Amino acid sequence: MRDIRGDLQDRANRASEQISATQGQFDKVLEQLKLEHQTKLAALKSDLDAVRMVMKMEDRLGAPGKQRQSMRPQRSQQAHSQQATSDSLMLPGQGCC
């Protein structure tokens, strides 16, 4: 019977090298993703700071944005009541579209 220990050791060494190479690629991709994440997060935080600054300025200037916000629910209620009226005008068995 032939001794196959050498062949098995070679296969194990090749598998180990492949695992190491794949781990290296994984680590590179992971670092790249972390860097991209940090860059996007920094941009979003900057945008958030800008929005907060604008909101503070609106508050200082008398908050014209708050008047607009108070009108939004009325528009929403009007649209909802118009939809309900439209739905009630449909004949039974008639569907939309």
What does this structure look like?
By secondary structure, this protein is mainly alpha-helical. It has a domain at 35-65. It has two helices and no strands. It has helices at residues 5-60, 64-89. The radius of gyration is 32 Å and the shape is elongated.
* Overall body shape: elongated
- Helix count from the secondary structure assignment: 2
Order of H and E elements: HH
Low-confidence residue ranges: none
**What share of residues are in beta strands?**
under 5%
SSE-based structural type: mainly alpha
The mean pLDDT is 81
Terminal residue distance: 80 Å
Helix content: over 70%
Q: Biggest β-sheet: count, sense, barrel? A: none
- Rg from Cα: 32 Å
**Strand segment count:** 0
Q: Which helices and strands, and how do they pair?
A:
Layout: H1 5-60, H2 64-89
Summarize the structure.
With 97 residues, the chain is mostly helical.
Protein traits:
single chain, 97 residues, mainly alpha, 2 helices, 85% helix
